[in-house]
Protein backbone atom coordinates (compact mmCIF):
# COMPACT_ATOMS: atom_id res chain seq x y z
CA UNK A 1 0.00 0.00 0.00
CA UNK A 2 1.49 3.29 -1.06
CA UNK A 3 0.96 6.15 1.37
CA UNK A 4 2.12 9.72 1.21
CA UNK A 5 2.80 11.95 4.16
CA UNK A 6 2.86 15.72 3.89
CA UNK A 7 5.51 17.32 6.08
CA UNK A 8 6.12 21.01 6.59
CA UNK A 9 9.37 22.40 5.19
CA UNK A 10 11.10 22.56 8.58
CA UNK A 11 10.38 18.91 9.37
CA UNK A 12 11.36 17.84 5.85
CA UNK A 13 14.67 19.60 6.35
CA UNK A 14 15.24 17.88 9.69
CA UNK A 15 14.46 14.47 8.21
CA UNK A 16 16.83 15.11 5.28
CA UNK A 17 19.58 16.27 7.63
CA UNK A 18 19.18 13.21 9.86
CA UNK A 19 19.13 10.94 6.81
CA UNK A 20 22.43 12.40 5.62
CA UNK A 21 24.03 12.14 9.06
CA UNK A 22 22.87 8.53 9.48
CA UNK A 23 23.68 7.64 5.86
CA UNK A 24 20.13 6.41 5.35
CA UNK A 25 17.36 7.49 3.02
CA UNK A 26 14.72 9.92 4.20
CA UNK A 27 12.22 7.13 3.48
CA UNK A 28 14.08 4.81 5.89
CA UNK A 29 14.12 7.49 8.62
CA UNK A 30 10.38 8.11 8.28
CA UNK A 31 9.51 4.41 8.14
CA UNK A 32 11.63 3.75 11.24
CA UNK A 33 10.00 6.65 13.11
CA UNK A 34 6.50 5.46 12.24
CA UNK A 35 7.32 1.87 13.21
CA UNK A 36 8.70 2.94 16.61
CA UNK A 37 5.69 5.18 17.23
CA UNK A 38 3.21 2.43 16.38
CA UNK A 39 5.05 -0.11 18.59
CA UNK A 40 5.13 2.37 21.50
CA UNK A 41 1.42 3.19 21.14
CA UNK A 42 0.49 -0.50 20.85
CA UNK A 43 2.42 -1.20 24.06
CA UNK A 44 0.68 1.72 25.77
CA UNK A 45 -2.74 0.44 24.65
CA UNK A 46 -1.89 -3.07 25.83
CA UNK A 47 -0.91 -1.71 29.25
CA UNK A 48 -4.12 0.31 29.42
CA UNK A 49 -6.22 -2.75 28.59
CA UNK A 50 -4.32 -4.85 31.14
CA UNK A 51 -4.95 -2.21 33.82
CA UNK A 52 -8.66 -2.00 32.96
CA UNK A 53 -8.95 -5.79 33.14
CA UNK A 54 -7.15 -5.84 36.51
CA UNK A 55 -9.44 -3.10 37.82
CA UNK A 56 -12.55 -5.00 36.65
CA UNK A 57 -11.23 -8.16 38.31
CA UNK A 58 -10.62 -6.29 41.56
CA UNK A 59 -14.09 -4.74 41.48
CA UNK A 60 -15.63 -8.17 40.89
CA UNK A 61 -13.64 -10.12 43.48
CA UNK A 62 -11.98 -7.66 45.86
CA UNK A 63 -8.82 -9.79 45.59
CA UNK A 64 -5.60 -7.76 45.66
CA UNK A 65 -2.06 -7.31 46.94
CA UNK A 66 -0.98 -4.12 48.65
CA UNK A 67 1.83 -2.02 47.26
CA UNK A 68 4.07 -2.92 50.19
CA UNK A 69 3.39 -6.65 49.67
CA UNK A 70 4.43 -6.36 46.04
CA UNK A 71 7.52 -4.26 46.88
CA UNK A 72 8.62 -6.77 49.55
CA UNK A 73 8.17 -9.63 47.09
CA UNK A 74 10.06 -7.83 44.29
CA UNK A 75 12.89 -6.83 46.65
CA UNK A 76 13.82 -10.52 46.96
CA UNK A 77 13.94 -11.29 43.24
CA UNK A 78 17.28 -12.77 42.24
CA UNK A 79 18.32 -13.47 45.83
CA UNK A 80 18.50 -16.63 47.91
CA UNK A 81 15.34 -15.41 49.68
CA UNK A 82 13.30 -15.30 46.45
CA UNK A 83 9.76 -16.60 46.93
CA UNK A 84 6.63 -17.18 44.89
CA UNK A 85 4.23 -14.29 44.45
CA UNK A 86 2.10 -13.85 47.57
CA UNK A 87 -1.53 -14.98 47.43
CA UNK A 88 -4.09 -12.29 46.77
CA UNK A 89 -6.53 -11.47 49.56
CA UNK A 90 -9.54 -9.27 50.24
Overview of this protein structure:
With 90 residues, the protein is an all-alpha fold. The protein has a domain at 9-61. The chain contains three helices and no strands. Helix 1 (9-22) packs across helix 2.
Give the strand tally: 0
CA-atom Rg in angstroms: 23 Å
Q: State the share of residues found in helices, binned by percent.
A: 55-70%
Q: Kindly report how far apart the N and C termini lie.
A: 52 Å
Q: In terms of per-residue confidence, which ranges show pLDDT below 50 for 5 or more consecutive residues?
A: none
Q: What is the mean predicted local confidence, pLDDT?
A: 96
Percent range for β-strand residues: under 5%
Helices, by number, come to 3
Main beta sheet: none
Structural class: mainly alpha
Shape: elongated
What's the arrangement of secondary structure elements?
Layout: H1 9-22, H2 26-61, H3 67-75
Helix pairs in contact: 1-2
For the structure shown, list the relevant keywords.
single chain; mainly alpha; 90 residues
Question: Could you give a short description of this structure?
Answer:
The protein is mainly alpha-helical. The protein has helices at 9-22, 26-61, 67-75.
